[in-house]
Amino acid sequence: MKNTLQQEFTKLYHKEADATYFSPGRVNLIGEHIDYNGGLVMPCAITFGTYLLISPNEDGVFRFRSLNFTDQGDIPVQQRYEKTGDEWFNFPIGIIDHFGKDGHQLKGLDMLFYGDIPIGSGLSSSASIEVVTAYTLNDIFNCGYSKLDLVKLSKSVENNFIGVNSGIMDQFAVAFGEKNKALMLNCDTLDYQAVDSNLGEHVLAIINTNKPRKLAESKYNERVQECQEALKALQRELKINYLCDINADTFKKYQHLITNPVVLNRAKHVVEENDRVKLAAVALAANNLQEFGRLMYASHDSLRDLYEVSGAELDAVAEYSKTNPNVAGARMTGAGFGGCAIALVKADAFDNYSAEITEYYTQKIGYAPSVYSSLIGNGVGLLNLLVN
């Protein structure tokens, strides 16, 4: 891959790139819709992501090229930048703008981006582009940011420059990911624990439902409001700041305070899912993939029945996976209403699994999913220093 990209860079710029950087995509293994409730998530970096080849120029211009998109940008070096339209290079421009606002003097660069993350799949292609750009600029111009600084900077760009109200999990996972480790992350404090996650004879199957996620944003905001309503009800008798400040046993004692049955279901999912993340960390550290798989299925069932963010497409993946003896567990991942599901599949059975779930899904839904195989990979870095 690196040699192929170098050839493409030479074709475009008539010189070799000085360096190649890589930032992965991510999946959330378990812990869904609890990041805004003060709980724990468990993302990991995956082994495909965004490559950035780069070389300085003397022209005072940032040149943006991509092998994924036809549109390209040539932007003069200046102090301030604004978002223009929906072009992909708004993401790196936003990062450059943030560096400038922090007082860093950047110089012209020739850049080539290439990503093998499926666009719009919910695997964090945008966070991957942001973090690889931020890491690269910090490295080349010796700006002195820590990795955590780069995560916060990238999230700020996503929220304020791009205008997407996302949390910090995506940028954190693609920056801090470690090979064969999941990150048990508290999204409120940013404290995290790297949990040993050797998949052994299994691989991570990523199943893109290929369903557009039109409902996701409005329903997401609705769920946030329902959780806030549940929290206010519990706060009448409990001194808590978040739903995830209590466990399932405490919730049972006080759930009578929540009189709306729909809101009760939402809160029940959140509290129990947070407990599942803690159990999942224990199972993974003990290399007990069967128990981890059981927790994955339980998570999916809760997201389907209590939180109601699944759908026929994601449910079809979980339904089929339960019937396949080579699958340890499966669940939807991400906001829901489309996007991706994940499954732990025996490596030597992956090709059969891919063919069979494609047939099952196509018959049930009417069009095919896209199925990928990944391991748990490293976070952002200079490519020749990364060993995936």
UniProtKB/TrEMBL annotation:
Its EC number is 2.7.1.6. The record marks 26 as: Transition state stabilizer. InterPro entries: Galactokinase (IPR000705), Galactokinase_bac (IPR022963), Galactokinase_CS (IPR019741), GalKase_N (IPR019539), GHMP_kinase_C_dom (IPR013750), GHMP_kinase_C_sf (IPR036554), GHMP_kinase_N_dom (IPR006204), GHMP_knse_ATP-bd_CS (IPR006203). Pathway: Carbohydrate metabolism; galactose metabolism. It catalyses: alpha-D-galactose + ATP = alpha-D-galactose 1-phosphate + ADP + H(+). Residues 7-56 form the Galactokinase N-terminal domain. It is found in: Cytoplasm. Residues 281-353 form the GHMP kinase C-terminal domain. The active site is at residue 170. Substrate binds at residues 32-35, 220. GO terms for molecular function: galactokinase activity. Signal peptide: none annotated. ATP binds at residues 66, 120-126. The keyword Chaperone does not apply. Catalyzes the transfer of the gamma-phosphate of ATP to D-galactose to form alpha-D-galactose-1-phosphate (Gal-1-P). This is Galactokinase. The gene is galK.
